[in-house]
Amino acid sequence: MVQKVVNKSAKSPARPRRSQPNRDRILAAARRVFAAQGYDRATVRLVAAEAGTAPSMVIRYYGSKNELFAAAVQFDLRLPDLTGVPRGEIGACLTRHFLTRWEEAPSGGELGALVRAAISTDAARERLIEIFQRQLQVSIAAISGPEGADRRAALISSQFLGIALARYVLALPACVAMDHDLIIAHVGATVQAYLTKSISPVNG
């Protein structure tokens, strides 16, 4: 009689976790609630109600409101391929892209909620830094090389986040009233300088 040898070390194909649909539903609900309510007014109970589940399930899967928020804002800026943009037009191209990204639904609401929360919440601030610095840095390095890409990304982020704060969070009337062409002309010129001019540290 031949015995069949079973290789216990062989791994069976990974199966999707049975809890994944619940996790996904809660995460989608969290994005909607954070976008509509902002970080401060959003609660675990509101997210649970939106997801059609119990607050204890939200805590079970995500631990806390902070951790849920951090998971909910895994955001792709969808930056354009800058290598195909004429060199002198990259600043305007990036500025136009960000204005569109801020104002389109539903992503604009999510980004606005993130900026509002970043003012007072460490988790939100860290996520915002990660999103802008990491994604912009990769895109900028592709056209300017890795040297100084982190500094260029930081300077460009300061422009776009400043516009976002003034226009979409604080809603400064003069800033809100500006049309896209005006913002693109002026902010785009500054972004273009950050991309193309030397940003070597100044000694002395």
Quick description:
The chain is an all-alpha fold and 204 residues long. It has 2 domains: 20-72, Orthogonal Bundle (Arc Repressor Mutant, subunit A); 82-196, Tetracycline Repressor, domain 2 (Orthogonal Bundle), CATH 1.10.357.
User: Total domains, how many?
Assistant: 2
Number of helices: 10
Shape: elongated
Order of helices and strands: HHHHHHHHHH
The level of helicity is 55-70%
Quickly name the level 1 CATH class of the largest domain.
Answer: Mainly Alpha
Radius of gyration from CA coordinates: 22 Å
Task: Fill in the CATH topology of the largest domain.
Answer: Tetracycline Repressor, domain 2
Q: Kindly estimate the percentage of residues that lie in beta strands according to DSSP.
A: under 5%
Structural class computed from helices and strand pairing: mainly alpha
Number of strands: 0
Short key terms for the protein model shown above:
Arc Repressor Mutant, subunit A; 2 domains; mainly alpha; 0% strand; 10 helices; Tetracycline Repressor, domain 2; elongated; 204 residues
Structure notes:
By secondary structure, the protein is an all-alpha fold. It folds into 2 domains: 20-72, Homeodomain-like (Arc Repressor Mutant, subunit A), CATH 1.10.10; 82-196, Tetracycline Repressor, domain 2 (Orthogonal Bundle), CATH 1.10.357. Helix content is 68%, strand content 0%. It has 10 helices and no strands. The protein has helices spanning 20-41, 44-51, 55-62, 65-72, 90-103, 107-118, 122-144, 149-169, 173-177, 180-196. α1 (20-41) crosses α4 (65-72). The chain is elongated and about 55 Å long. The termini are far apart. The relative contact order is 0.11.
